[in-house]
Structure formats: C-alpha cells, structure tokens
Input
Amino acid sequence: METEKWLLLRRDQVEEILEKYLPAEEGDAATLLSAMNYSVRAGGKRLRPILLLELCRLYGGSEEVASPFAAALECIHSYSLVHDDLPAMDDDMLRRGKPTTHAVYGEAMGILAGDGLLNYAFEIIAGALSDMDPSVLPGGIRAFSILSRAAGAFGMIGGQCVDIEAEGKEEISDGLIDSIYHNKTGALIASAMSMGTALAMAHAEDIDRAAECGYALGRAFQIRDDILDVTGSEEVLGKPIGSDERNLKPTYVAMHGIEKAQEEVRFQTEYAKSLVDKMPGDTEQLRALMDYLTGREM
Ligand code: GRG
Output
C-alpha cells in the first residue's frame, strides 16, 4: 500500500482510539477539559502512536493492550506542543494550522491544559495496568517505566531545558546539539518504538534495539524539522516558519547548512532501517514510513 494512504488509515485508527480515552468536558473544570481536548483534537500526524502500534504488531502483541498506551503517549506529545508554544517558550500562535491552545484559552489555561494532559496520560496507563491480563502485565509495567523516563527530566523535559539554555549562543558543540535532539525529540519517538515492543512481551534486546532505532529516527525527524523551519511553508506545515532563527536557536541546520543536514537525515534513516531489518514480521510499511519521513513537508 502507498505510504501516504497507509499513514492516513493508521492516523484514523489512532484518532478513534483517542476518542475513546479523551475526557468528557463537564464539571467545574470543564474549560480545562475542553482546552485539553482542543489540543489533542487539533490534528497532527500521530506518528508516535502509529509507531507504538506498529512495533507491537510486528512483535505479535495485541492492539487492545497497546491502545491505551498509544493514547497516553499522544496526550504527552500534545502537552509538550502546548507548552512549547507558550509565550515563555517559543511564543507561537499557530500549530497544526489552528490557533495554539493558549491563543484560544489564554496563557494560564494553556499551562493547565499541558499539565492536565501530562497527568491524564498516566491516569490512562494506571487504568490500563489495573485491567491488564497477568500474562502481559510485565510488558505494561515496562512500557509505563519507559514512558515516565522518556517524558521527564532525563528525557524530553531535560532536552527542552538544554535547548532553552542554548538559545542565543552563536555556536554550540555537536555533542550538545546531539544531546538536545536525543532527549527533546528522540526520547519520545524511541519510547514509542520500545513501548510497542515491550507491550508485545518481546525480549529485552528487542526492546533496546527498538529504542536505538527510535533515537536514530528521532534525530532524523528533528533535523528534517529544522530544515522545514527554513525551507517549508506556513500553509503546509500549519505553523510559522523561521521560528528557530527568531528565537536564536542553534540548530543542526544553522551550524552545518541545509545540504549537510539533509545528508544526516538520510544517514540516520538508513541506520534506523538497518535496525528494522533485524525485526520480525512484515516490516515493509515501517521501512517505507521512515523513507517517507526523510522528505516530509509537514
Ligand atoms: C514542561 C514547561 C514545560 C515544557 C515542556 C518538553 C517541551 C515543553 C517541549 C519539547 C517538545 C518539542 C516541541 C519537541 C520537538 C519535537 C517536534 C519536532 C515536535 C513536532 O512533532 P510532530 O511533527 O507534530 O510529530 P504533529 O503536529 O504532527 O503531532
């Protein structure tokens, strides 16, 4: 099947899953719940849950078991975007072609919606773990542990901290850029792949390989993101371009130029695909997805 068509089908599947888990907008804090749902329903590629479900499928796991973890992961991704757009961070008013959450609900509610989504993700997982069949519970606990580490101070939030501190610096070392990309973007993408593998009760070495593959893909994804921030268009991307330059962010593109950056995107993707070659089952769509991402325009 053509990759774009496959992605759209998978995206629809993820959106159906999300609808099952999103909270009802009622009670005294209905505004908060509405802001949380607005952020998640605003669209997006749903790449991370798609990867989680695909890895679980490859390793012979159950979609039913993986679904709540896929929903929780997308809640955490959405929260990170809501907070990333806040005035104290990138101060962006457009995301996924729509006004950002703080632009619609105000800054205070934007902060709370992000907090609410982060916490809600773990509520979804706690509910799933308590209902899980004992035969797959160890995989669920492993996935929970992977996600809590990846989203936190030793993963995405830590990466965001280093990213913010690097702003305004003319040049930073390649090592520091690597560390930012590894944690800010790589951690959540790696967690998607390793959680899917863990939920299928695969061996530890398979979980580690999936994470390594996700980190390479995450690096390629972030560098392509930097390229699109220079060469992309606001209509296609659904967010303002030139944000990195405006915020004086030292990116891989700013340091090495677009050509070398795209070369690195291809190099990391090839490495990720070499790891996919060691995975079981029909990996054709996963490999095609990785190739597709190297030239993505949104
Ligand atoms: C805790 C105050 C506080 C803030 C957290 C951690 C964080 C803010 C932000 C980092 C998240 C971030 C913006 C990472 C960059 C990764 C990236 C390229 C995100 C865009 O992902 P896509 O393209 O988005 O998958 P869609 O819209 O398709 O879902």
The first strand starts at residue 94 and ends at 95. The chain has one domain: 3-294. Residues 3-294 form a domain with the Farnesyl Diphosphate Synthase fold (CATH 1.10.600.10).
